[in-house]
Specification:
CATH architecture of the largest domain: 3-Layer(aba) Sandwich
Helix content: 25-40%
Number of helices: 9
Distance between the termini: 15 Å
Strand order of the largest sheet: 3-8-7-4-5-6
Structural class: alpha/beta
Shape: elongated
């Protein structure tokens, strides 16, 4: 079975796919550009990261890194958490989805304020839920994502999607006919749903869960 990944995946994940007899082609369908006019302001005691891109950009910037000293970290995703720990930070809470993290904060941090280090384009769940619960959250825009569409001429049995922006970029030059979409999370799946009904969603935003839905889909198809 031939798979197309819409981003460059971890070598370990690719090796596991190959182990299960999948051939994988990787193409980056989005580009990440740090914002040219960074405005930090006052950073709250509690900070939120929902992407590895934001962590990488933040800790490569000396001004931002200094502003994050002695903060309490909340994040989405195991890889984001691992990256924060790698940069010497303590993670108070890790959730699998933005809405899950927002619901946790709403119950456990009612009187706290948060700084949210993020992209200009992002899912609204986190800010919407916290604002509804009267918890102040201030976004700090670190980067922009831009589409990098590729016209795919070969046939692929499945396409791996990791973000809503990646889905939109893919759709600029390609159709979803005669293939199956595999989505890392619900926000990605929500975007895929605009183009096709043929998709599967990982239960958690992890490589292991992504591999599981790929294996299960093709196993059922050949039964």
């Amino acid at each position: 079975m031939r798979l197309l990944s819409t981003k460059i995946i971890a070598h370990s994940f690719k090796e596991r796919l190959v182990l299960y007899q999948f051939s994988v082609v990787e193409k980056a369908f989005i580009e990440v550009h740090p914002t040219s006019e960074l405005v930090i302001g006052q950073v709250a005691k509690n900070v939120i990261f929902t992407s590895q891109n934001a962590v990488n950009i933040a800790f490569k910037n000396e001004k931002i890194r200094t502003s994050l000293e002695d903060k309490l970290f909340f994040c989405v995703g195991k890889k984001t958490k691992s990256l924060l720990i790698k940069n010497g930070q303590k993670v108070v809470k890790m959730a699998n989805k933005s809405s899950e993290l927002a619901n946790f904060i709403s119950k456990n941090n009612k009187n706290d304020q948060f700084s949210f280090f993020c992209a200009a384009e992002r899912t609204p769940d986190l800010e919407r839920i916290l604002s509804t619960n009267d918890i102040k959250i201030t976004p700090i825009i670190l980067y922009n994502t831009q589409p990098k569409p590729h016209a795919i001429k070969s046939h692929f049995d499945g396409v791996l999607f990791f973000s809503a922006s990646g889905v939109r970029s893919y759709a600029m030059k390609n159709t979803f006919k005669n293939t199956h979409a595999f989505c890392l999370g619900p926000s990605t799946a929500k975007e895929v749903e605009n183009y096709t009904e043929n998709f599967s969603v990982a239960k958690k935003p992890e490589d292991t869960q992504m591999l599981l839905i790929i294996k299960n889909y093709f196993k059922k198809r050949h039964e």
